[in-house]
Amino acid sequence: MPLLSISVFLPLLTGLLLMALPNKSARIAHGVSIATTGLTFLVTLAVWARGTLPGGFAQVEEIAWIPAIGAAYRLGIDGLSLPLILLTSLLFFLSAIYAARITDRPAVFVALMLMLETASIGTFAALDALLFYVFFEVSLVGMYFMIVGWGYEERQRAGLMFFIYTLLGSLPLLLAIIGLYLATGTFDMRLWIETPPLTGLAAMLALIAMLFTFAVKIPSFPVHTWLPAAHVQAPTVGSVILAGVMLKFGTYGLVRFALQMTPDAFARAGLVVLAFGVFSALYGAFVALAQSDLKKMIAYTSVNHMGYVVIGVAVAALTLDPDLRAVALNGATLQMVSHGIVTGALFFLVGMLQSRAHDRDMAAFGGLLGQVPRLGWAFVLSAFASLGLPGLAHFPAEFQIFLATLNAQPWAIVAIIAIVVTAGLYLRAIAAVFLGERNEKWAAMPDLDRGEMLTIAPLLILIILIGIAPSWLLGMIDATMRALQF
Amino acid sequence: MARDLSFLFPELLLASTVVLMLVAEMLRAPRLALIFGLIGLGLSTALTLPLLEADTSVFGGTYRVDLLSGWAKLILLPGTALALLMTRAEIAGQDREGSVYALLCLVTLGALMLAGGGDMMLLVLGVVLTGLGSFAMVAWPRDDAATEAAMKYLVFGAVTGSVMIYGLTFWFGGAGSTLFSELGALDGKPLIALAGLVAVLIGLGYKAALVPFQFWAPDAYDGAPVSVAAFLSVITKVAAIIAFAQVLRDLPVATGWPVVVALIAAVTMTFGYLAALVQSNVVRLLAYSSVAQAGYFMMGIVALGTSPLALPSVIVFGAAYVAMNLGAFAVIMIAGRDLDDFRGFGRARPVIGVAMVVFLLSLTGIPPLFGFVGKVLLFGAATEAGYLWLAVIGILNSVLALAVYLRIVVPMYQAGDGDAGRTEVAPPLLVVLGATALVTVLMGLFAGVFPG
């Protein structure tokens, strides 16, 4: 059974079916949505059970598409894409559960969300560059309409900025893909990875184009400015998907395209990339410290956390020691997954808080831990995970990244200052919102209900599981990273 | 002679159809004229299919029956049929209704001449034949705006046409023949080649609305009925682009013509989108957008002779452009000409709203829609031909394009007055919307059927 294709297209097909249904009440729409995303999650688990191959792509599915130009429908997975696919299907499943409270045009919302899931899983599973680009761009369209249709006050402006910014960002990638295509006559990414087709100046130009695209998506300083606006204005589910899944397109592309297809150029430009990563990590942390809007603060910590991923990839490109490389890339990949889970949880929690209080400003709250203990403790746990506390999800990832950095490029370890800053800002946020003087304005605030508990509990369990015993995930990642050719 | 004629069945059938349509109009039976037109166009399309593999020329090399002209027919004839349906939806029951139908088909006949022309005389014939019918159609509403638009269109067309004929005499003198296939003789005579090139750029550039010969387009589109504007923006433009391909693929690259065309392409797409950015009339906005799209087409023309992707890119983008632009104009016929008419349109009419979003995103070049496939091929052709800078400009303009088209999409989903959804949509228009939307969505996935 073509399980990968099923997991990619099942959401889209049911979304279309839903649009064709005559009765599109909220109950039916959300029922379909939860069932579909749940089923998709199960299918991706089955994909996981089938396993990956070390040094190559597993479960490849291939059908001719435009044979005249060497483009085909090609899907496959390895230890880099499979964890991200699992993360994607899980986050969409939880988002579907949480979104069940949306009553404004529910069928359209669900259809958009399912389309986004197809685009997201497709982006990670595509082995054909043209197909990858198709999925990559479709996700933009879906997210644009989600922000514009269901966002907050400034949604029109934020949506427009997001769309134009990221479209401008992704078009250089198209040029790079055309360049690689003209050098080989095919869009097969496996061939491009096996024997990188470009050399010299052409490779450097292609790399610069790709770096620009992925830097916008990651987002890395100085092209991160769309992120706070889009995050703050997006609906909760949109923020979760944007931060949890779509930012990973950038880091995934950084490894899959930039590192694997133009390895020599990347090694030459590695120091520059590393410098951008270090600066992004520091910059994101310090700017997050200055925020009083909770959602904006979490958005900026994404810039910080994704900066660590960039550091990990750049260190891997700069070092020749295969062990160190594997450590750096393992850390970077695990960081992508951890960030998806932790930041997903944080955005869910802030969304739950906002739906109760219609406010996101830290100063407006106080002493909520006694009022809403479940929400409070869930936030505290996620925040501790986000600041890199040992035993929680980010620690094994960041530890490996910094270990490799210290061995290969010791100067870059200055990025570790960012951890201290994040610790400070999260403690400040916890103190302002959940501790201290109780604000009587929120005396009637209800704690998490069953749907919300269902949404948040799996993420909290995973945060602890990855933190204490990451080997079930790292084993799969490591097998691929050790065999990575570049 | 008989062999030659056998290759011209589609054209001959279309010519007889036009005659029959005129007779029907004289009998005051516009519906009959419409039916004749639709049947004739359908049969001509069917007759084209067996000729698709042919690669020959008839009547002493003056008329080409090849891949390019074959696909041009497959694109232009069904496109005209859709335009006929749109016109019917707009002007049904009005005076001289059948004349418009006959003129549409007559202009399409001229468009086929342009697309198959292998000779300078035939090129002139095509330009004149498409021009005459178009002037009359623009002037059809008989009000001030239409008359002014038609006058502008006519004067502009007369001047550019004469300049083209004058310039073509240089090529005739230099090559010793009016056949395009003899243009290779101009190798080493750059001045003569340039004189003729400028002439062709003026004559066909006017038809395709390239900058700086685009002034007539917004006025003509706005003065004419919307369906006629849709027809002009699609059929005559694609025919002119294919005529460019027929003319320039025999001109030696060494004469430097690709540079000139590349410059025009860059200026055209940039100017088109910049001008579209400030329009508040949606017809004028789409007029400038179709100016910009002509610039994209020229990226494929630039690569003629140097990239094997050039011809497929023009054909694929031509098919995509016909579908998505006709669809967008059909939505305008429902919503209205003013940008304010689109406020709340997507909420009042969800299905047609989604169709409009699909057309506009395809015009922008967002995958996996048909327009994206065409643009990828165009970018690939230009890059392979060594015009990376042109591809970069094209890509930057895609961002401008998004800003332009979102100006329509954004108000569609704002809260509106909601009265846009009251009137019934004419059935022919629904057919057009369905067909164009299907092509725009599905052909991106099945682009393998096109030649490459």
UniProtKB/TrEMBL annotation, chain A:
GO MF assignments: NADH dehydrogenase (ubiquinone) activity; NADH dehydrogenase activity; ubiquinone binding
Bilayer-spanning residue ranges: 6-21, 28-49, 80-100, 107-125, 131-150, 162-183, 195-216, 237-259, 265-290, 297-320, 332-353, 374-393, 413-435, 456-477
Membrane topology term: Multi-pass membrane protein
Limits of the NADH:quinone oxidoreductase/Mrp antiporter transmembrane domain: 127-419
Cell compartment(s), UniProt: Endomembrane system; Membrane
InterPro entries in alphabetical order: NADH_Q_OxRdtase_chainM/4, NADH_UbQ_OxRdtase, ND/Mrp_TM
Source superkingdom: Bacteria
One GO-annotated biological process of the protein: electron transport coupled proton transport
Presence of the UniProt keyword Metal-binding in the record: no
Keywords from the UniProt entry: Membrane, Transmembrane, Transmembrane helix
Residues making up the signal peptide according to the UniProt record: none
One Pfam family it belongs to: Proton_antipo_M
GO (cellular component) term, any one: endomembrane system
Family: Belongs to the complex I subunit 4 family.
Cross-referenced PANTHER family: NADH-UBIQUINONE OXIDOREDUCTASE CHAIN 4
Biological role: NDH-1 shuttles electrons from NADH, via FMN and iron-sulfur (Fe-S) centers, to quinones in the respiratory chain. The immediate electron acceptor for the enzyme in this species is believed to be ubiquinone. Couples the redox reaction to proton translocation (for every two electrons transferred, four hydrogen ions are translocated across the cytoplasmic membrane), and thus conserves the redox energy in a proton gradient.
Protein name: NADH dehydrogenase subunit M
From TrEMBL, chain B:
EC class name: translocase
Keyword Lipid metabolism: no
Entry GO terms, CC: endomembrane system; plasma membrane
Domain NADH:quinone oxidoreductase/Mrp antiporter transmembrane: 118-400
Keywords, in A-Z order: Cell membrane, Membrane, NAD, Quinone, Translocase, Transmembrane, Transmembrane helix, Transport, Ubiquinone
Substrates-to-products reaction catalysed: a quinone + NADH + 5 H(+)(in) = a quinol + NAD(+) + 4 H(+)(out)
Its membrane topology: Multi-pass membrane protein
Primary localization class, coarse: membrane
EC number, as in UniProt: 7.1.1.-
One of the protein's GO biological processes: ATP synthesis coupled electron transport
UniProt-recorded Gene Ontology molecular function terms: NADH dehydrogenase (quinone) (non-electrogenic) activity; NADH dehydrogenase (ubiquinone) activity; quinone binding
Domain of life: Bacteria
Transmembrane feature ranges: 6-24, 31-52, 67-86, 98-115, 121-141, 153-172, 192-216, 228-248, 254-278, 285-304, 310-336, 348-366, 386-408, 429-450
InterPro entries: NADH-Q_OxRdtase_suN/2 (IPR010096), ND/Mrp_TM (IPR001750)
Keyword Amino-acid biosynthesis tagged: no
Pfam families cross-referenced by the UniProt entry: Proton_antipo_M
Similarity annotation: Belongs to the complex I subunit 2 family.
Function: NDH-1 shuttles electrons from NADH, via FMN and iron-sulfur (Fe-S) centers, to quinones in the respiratory chain. The immediate electron acceptor for the enzyme in this species is believed to be ubiquinone. Couples the redox reaction to proton translocation (for every two electrons transferred, four hydrogen ions are translocated across the cytoplasmic membrane), and thus conserves the redox energy in a proton gradient.
Subunit structure: NDH-1 is composed of 14 different subunits. Subunits NuoA, H, J, K, L, M, N constitute the membrane sector of the complex.
Protein name: NADH-quinone oxidoreductase subunit N
Organism of origin: Cribrihabitans marinus
